[in-house]
Amino acid sequence: METLTQRLGALAADQDVVGTLVLTIEQRERSRFRATLDNGEVIGVILERGGAALRAGDGLADDTGRIYRVEAAPEPVSTVRSDDPLVLLRAAYHLGNRHTPLEVAKGYLRYRHDHVLNEMVRGLGAEPTHETAPFQPESGAYAGGGHHHG
C-alpha cells in the first residue's frame, strides 16, 4: 500500500497529479488514515500530528515525490442561504456559540446536518436546507490549538 507522508498545501489548479483523494471533513481532520483514490486504489496517509485539517485543493506526496490532490467529499449538511447579511450573522453567532464547525461563504452558512441546530436556526428567522454537498468549515482563529473557557 502506497503511503502519503508529505503535506504540500494548496496546489495550482493545473498541477499534474497521480490521483485524487475525495475525503469527508472527518477524514481531513485526521493525521493517520486509509483512503481510496479515485481509481479505487487503497492508500495510507501518515502526516505530522497537530496540523490543520486538509482543505479541498491541497496536495499530498509520497516519498518518491508523486503528488495527489485532496478534494472534499459530498456529505450531509444543512445550508442557510440569505441575501440579508444580518440573518446570516445572527445564525453564525449562535452556531459559533455552540462550537459548531461552520463553513462561511458569501450568501450562505453550512454546517453538519443536525435537526436540533436546524430548529435553532429556524427560530432565528432563517430556513436551513438539508443537502449533500462538500463541507469546508473555517479552520478557526486558533487552528490546531483549541481553547478553554475560564
Anisotropy-based shape: elongated
CATH class of the largest domain: Mainly Beta
Whole-number average pLDDT? 91
CATH fold description of the largest domain: HSP40/DNAj peptide-binding domain
**Sequence stretches where pLDDT stays below 50 over 5 or more residues:** 145-150
- The CATH architecture category of the largest domain equals Sandwich
How would you sum up the major sheet? 6 strands, mixed
Q: What's the Cα radius of gyration?
A: 17 Å
What is the count of DSSP helices, taking H or I runs of 4+ residues?
Answer: 3
Q: Into which percentage range does the β-strand content fall?
A: 35-45%
Number of strands: 10
CATH superfamily of the largest domain: Urease metallochaperone UreE, N-terminal domain
Structural class: alpha+beta
Pfam families: UreE_C (PF05194), UreE_N (PF02814)
InterPro entries: UreE, UreE_C_dom, UreE_N, UreE_N_sf
Region (Disordered): 128-150
Protein name: Urease accessory protein UreE
List the helices and strands and how they pair.
Blueprint: E1 2-10, E2 19-23, H1 25-28, E3 32-36, E4 42-46, E5 58-62, E6 67-72, E7 74-81, H2 85-97, E8 103-105, E9 108-112, H3 115-123, E10 128-134
Model description:
The strands form two sheets. Strands 2-6-5-1-4-3 form a six-stranded mixed beta sheet. A four-stranded antiparallel beta sheet has the order 8-9-7-10. The protein starts with a strand and ends in a 16-residue tail after the last strand. 17% of the residues lie in helices and 39% in strands. The protein folds into two domains: 71 residues, HSP40/DNAj peptide-binding domain (Sandwich), CATH 2.60.260; 61 residues, Alpha-Beta Plaits (2-Layer Sandwich). It has 150 residues and is an alpha+beta fold. A hairpin with a 5-residue loop joins β3 and β4. Keywords: Chaperone, Cytoplasm, Nickel.
